[in-house]
Amino acid sequence: MTVDDTTSGAGASGDGPSGGGASGSGRKQTSDVHPTPHHEVDHTVEPTKDPLAIRLEQLILGADRRYTPFQAARTAGVSMDLASRFWRAMGFADIGQAKALTEADVLALRRLAGLVEAGLLSEPMAVQVARSTGQTTARLAEWQIDSFLEGLTEPPEPGMTRTEVTYPLVELLLPELEEFLVYVWRRQLAAATGRVVQAADDEEMVDRRLAVGFADLVGFTRLTRRLEEEELGELVEAFETTCADLVAAHGGRLIKTLGDEVLYAADDAGTAAEIALRLIETLTNDDSMPALRVGIAFGTVTTRMGDVFGTTVNLASRLTSIAPKDAVLVDGAFAEELSRTGDAPVSEAEAAEAAAAAEKEGEESVAASKYRFALQPMWQRPVRGLGVVEPWLLTRRPT
């Protein structure tokens, strides 16, 4: 989704610095406003006076709040307009002119603006960097608080509050998790850079030929009416974890999860096919999981901010919606690519001929293992927005 950065609203994280000049966000800023709990602080008023909450905030931010948004922008040597665009892109809410920012906020502005001034990034690209980083880390932080810390901060003794347990825990975990985050980011950056520099030409660095697959749980809407919220959450978490592990283990990349659906990509058709069939096989053997269907397409894909777009992605989604339960449908280009790479025969007749010829030469075992996958053409059918397509049913050849 494209957002106009000059008019975009407040981000979801809420604890942020952007503000629009002296008038701020236009909210009430009088002193008779009652303070809200720390996790719901309205930063148009004075920050919470809860001593423990203040200590936790200082521990995590590493500094005291010293600046209003205007003061932070001026200290960083950045216009208020550009500072607001950066902050909103990072997902931080408008806070008027509350004194809520630290030296780290000033430094972050200087760094982004410095990259633009040095010509290393254009201004729109710097905003994209801020947005992609903000969206990724916001989701990570929410997960860590909702799931990770919640499970670890159960008071060990009667009379202790969860917040009292949280402070020493955060103090111990913060430096370790910070180092681990940087490590994982560097590994992922190295892998992504390696894929890009191996592209055949400059155009392929942006618009690449990839195999794109959607895996979708069947009947998920009906499940939401039948299961309790906690059960539903556990099912979704188990599904996403299983998919993420299998995609990574077999050389694919998990693009995103959508509750009952995952989107993944692979550089070659054979890898994407193996992942799809492994997903079907694994979830079929899990009685707690609904049936699964997978659709895969192969072709040119536009990549932006870790996501993928284009006709190939749309086709994979449409194939998923018409796939039978516990089955994989692929498009014609994907079938051709599997045949080209020798992972599947052009036809079963060709495979039978190859097996017969090999048997004559005493190479039966070699012929049997030549192909990994089988392709069966299905009836042509119209697909909304994409015209008539001929799907192929992908299965694993018996060994």
Q: Look at the helices and sheets and give the structural class.
A: alpha+beta
What is the gyration radius calculated from CA atoms?
26 Å
Tell me the span between the first and last alpha carbons.
45 Å
Strand content: 5-15%
Q: Helix fraction? A: 40-55%
Count of alpha/pi helices: 14
Q: What overall geometry do the principal axes of the alpha carbons give?
A: elongated
Quaternary structure: single chain
The SSE string, one letter per element, is: HHHHHHHEHHEEHEEHEHHHEEEE
Spans of at least 5 consecutive residues whose pLDDT stays below 50 are 1-14, 20-46
Q: Strand tally, please?
A: 10
The overall average pLDDT, rounded, is 79
Largest sheet: 8 strands, mixed
